Amino acid sequence: MNQLLVLFIAIPLLAFIISLFWKNKSERSIGRIVRFTKVLYIILSVVFAGWWIFNGLTPVTSHVATLYQTDHFVFAFELYYDEVTAVFSVVGALLFFLVATFSKYYMHRDHGYKRFFNTILLFAAGYNFIILSGNFETLFIGWEIKGVCSFILIAFYRDRYLPVKNAFKAISYYRTSDVALMLCMWMMHHLTHQNITFEKLGEAKIMAAAPGTAAMAIFITCMMIIPALVKSAQFPFTTWLPRAMEGPTASSAIFYGSLSVHIGVFLLLRTHPFWEDMLWAKIVIIAFGAITAIVSTMIARVQPTVKTQIAYASAAQIGLMFIEVAIGWHWLVLVHFAGNAFLRTYQLLVSPSVLNYLVHHQYFHYSKPEQKPLSKFKASFYVLCLKEWNLDATMFRFLWSPFKWAGRQLQFLQSGVALIGMAVSGAALLIYGYVNLHQLPDAGPVVPHILMGVALASILTSFACRQSALKAWSYLAIGHLFIITAIVFNAPQIKTIEIIFYISGILPAFALGYYCLQKIKSIDNDIILNKFHGYVYEQHTTGFLFLLSCIGMLGFPVTAAFIGIDIFFTYVEESQKILIVLMGLCILFIELAAFRILLRIFMGPHKKLDHPVAFRSS
Q1: pTM for this model (two decimals)
Q2: CA-to-CA distance for 549 and 187, rounded, in angstroms?
Q3: Contacts (Cβ under 8 Å, ≥6 apart) of 39
Q4: Are residues 226 and 342 in the same domain?
Q5: In principle, which of 190, 227, 390, 517 could form an S-S bond with 177, CB 3.0–4.6 Å?
Q6: Host domain of residue 460
Q7: Model confidence pLDDT, tens digit, residues 331-361
């Protein structure tokens, strides 16, 4: 029976592939694929949960495949099913059924009907990757899939300014959680000297209690808490959640009302055996949960839009779930999750009808509200909550603005001479490092830090670039080149196949992206990044291909580069703090720079006047 676990992922993934390449774009044919998938998915979830309960609630594990293995590293595809998975699976199947059924009518005659259901099916696969994951590597595959699906659905109305802008804001927070999870896996590898499964987290806790490992245990726990805070929109990352409501109401319901926003709670439940005896970790989780519950409740009470109210109300409830997880009331958390997920889904799905009724009722039964005296303190607090505690401005000022400033100081690198010089020197150093692989320890420990710093400088140059998109795209490739070179100089024992893993994903992605940008440039010789171009109107296929090249450049789990990045992290020692910080920042800003190019060139209001233009406030 444990072999059937893979069906949870295979069913929605196969349906996504079929719907993606289905040539008949009629709603009826797409609807049949989705209908068959949701029925099969809900039967599998309920029947498997019933079988699992009948067999005594014993956790089920399944080793599906080992993708790569060396003496010090194993990349395995592991699945795990317990009470947490059972609840998340059944709730997910029921909500997928409800939202898919609702969307069949809600999205009727929408231009993006097929694109919407493609993304929903891929999200279902990513969601099952997460909740059924047996190790961090499998969980991270679903983590990445869910993030990209969320980005696509937030920017679903891609001809408008605000959906595109808010999609970029959401993906920037998501990437922060991605990098934190990577660092968690990196330090866990050095703590346990193996790619540990969730079933053995209790053993990792014993290792973390050994003398001399306290700092490693604290770092790992922090890197578990931060992704949970980000994904579940907890303080101070709460503001991305209402911004993510720019997508269709149906996607808002299944993503930000029910399933996606509770993934942080799932991560804490899954990793609880590791930090359950750390009092400081419980206090931190309770503190952030309590702050979120209080602040989000106050903000929700004064918001003028129904989606924003529901978003903050949901974040407040999840804050309470964080408290329950820290205390150890796990079954209460699962019941709370199910109740909140169904309630928020219902509220979001009926919100258009309710608003229509209320507007109609107000038109015929309007009564002037009574004027009540308001103290300066209450008025100030009201304005503070109305401005959402200025969390957006604060996060931008202290989290993103310093890196934009650094990127602007590097604009001198955007000349053609600098571009060619960095490319040639990076390639020469990589060849030299590879040829002299076993003599590299004589180069000293500073060289990898310098090379990784050059990689970060190149990526930040691309991130802040306002000139040609081709130059920005080329600097991303140069950044990858210096990352590879830095790891080669840092790890003389690295194998050739591991370098090939990394390059085999990055190089084709760069070539495909360069081709797409050249094709757009040939139209009117204008691909400047200081404005939105909106070429998705005229170049649907090219836009889709460039999206594929972007996710290839960031190491999305569709190429071997995903394994290569994971391997590269293991070659950074736990004592090399500066190197790991530089590498983490490189991985973070590669995605942001790539998606920034995608949004500026292909999305947003079209620059040509013969296309309809959506106002910024639309």
Answers
A1: 0.92
A2: 30
A3: 97
A4: yes
A5: 227
A6: 410-602
A7: 999 999 999 999 999 988 888 777 777 777 7
Structure tokens at 589: 């800003």
Examine the domain organization and report whether 276 and 183 are in the same domain. yes
Locate 560 and state its tokens.
Answer: 């071997």
Query: Do residues 253 and 348 touch, judged by C-beta distance below 8 A?
Result: yes
Residues 470, 155: Cα–Cα separation, whole Å: 23
In degrees, rounded to 5, the angle at the alpha carbon of residue 585 between the alpha carbons of residues 584 and 590 is 105
User: If you write DSSP's letter for every residue of 495-551 in order, what string do you get?
Assistant: -HHHHHHHHHHHHHHHHHHHHHHHHHHHHHS--BTTS---GGGT-HHHHHHHHHHHH
Rg (CA), the chain: 24
How crowded is residue 1: how many other Cβ atoms within 10 Å of its Cβ?
11
In the 3-class helix/strand/coil scheme, how is 221-261 assigned residue by residue?
A: HHHHHHHHHHHCCCCCCCCHHHHHHHCCHHHHHHHHHHCHH
Number of domains present in the structure of the chain: 2
**Is pLDDT of 318 > 90?**
yes
For residue 444, the model assigns a pLDDT of 63
DSSP state of 276: T
Is residue 301 one of the residues assigned to a domain?
yes
Tokens encoding 585? 């920042």
Name the band, by pLDDT with cuts 50, 70 and 90, for residue 613.
Answer: low
Domain-embedded: residue 613: no
Please indicate, yes or no, whether residues 297 and 163 belong to a single structural domain of this protein.
Answer: yes
- Please count the other Cβ atoms lying within 10 Å of the Cβ belonging to residue 615: 9
74 has which bridge partners? 69
Kindly write down the DSSP assignment for every residue of 540-594, as one continuous string. Answer: HHHHHHHHHHHHHHTT-TTSTHHHHHHHHHHTS-TT-HHHHHHHHHHHHHHHHHH
- Kindly state the tokens that stand for 256: 């930000």
368 part of a folded domain? no
Are 106 and 174 contained in the same domain?
Answer: yes
Q: What percent of the chain has pLDDT over 90?
A: 40
**330 plus 415 within the same structural domain:** no
531: left (phi over 0), alpha (psi -120 to 50) or beta: beta
